[in-house]
Amino acid sequence: MATIAVMGASGNIGSKITEHLLAAGHTVRAIGRSAAKLAGAKARGAELVIGDAADADFLTRAFTGADGVFTMQPSNQAAADLLAEQDRDGEAIVVAATRSGVPHLVALSSVGGEVAAGTGPIAGLHQQEERLKRLTGTNVLVLRPGYFFENFIHALPLVRHQGINGGGAAGATTIPMIATKDIAAFAANALAARDWTGAKVQELLGPRDVSFAEATRILGEAIGKPDLAYVQFPYADYSAALQQAGLSKTVADLYAEMDKALDDGLVRSLEGRSAANTTPTTLEQFARDVIAPAYAAA
Question: How many CB atoms lie within 10 A of CB 244?
Answer without folding.
Answer: 9
